[in-house]
Amino acid sequence: MKDEYLLDQLEALAQRLGISVRYEMLSGEEASGAGGLCRVKGRPVVIIHTQAATHVKIRILIESLKQFPLDDFYLKPALRELLEGPGD
Q: pTM of this prediction?
């Protein structure tokens, strides 16, 4: 799967799960990395640095989405393999 297509698929899955994905400029003390999963007012949100490379955005989304039950969702086999595979 091409990186841009994979990123689109992961963003779409997040939306189906009710998870917001926000791209923001992270700088200074608030930037402990390129982003990750958090809760804002009790709702799951993935915040990703706008300047992060595509492969980093993909890694952040994969690690964030792995924390949610995915059994009830149809996923293309290659995408399911990424989400169910071992972490880094």
A: 0.88
**What six digits make up the tokens of 31?**
């930037």
Count Cα neighbours of 12 within 13 Å in the Cβ-side half-sphere.
Answer: 11
Average model confidence (pLDDT) across the chain: 90
User: Could you tell me whether strands 20-24 and 35-40 are parallel, antiparallel, or unpaired per DSSP bridges?
Assistant: unpaired
Residue 39 pairs in a beta bridge with 44
Cα of 2 vs its chain's centroid, Å:
16
Read off the pLDDT band of 80 (50, 70, 90). very high
Q: Where are the domains of the chain?
A: 3-84
**What is 3-84's CATH topology?**
Zincin-like (3.30.2010)
Any idea of the CA torsion for 77, 73, 64, 84, to the nearest 10 degrees? -40
Quote the pLDDT of residue 1. Answer: 72
14 and 21 Cβ atoms separated by less than 8 Å: yes
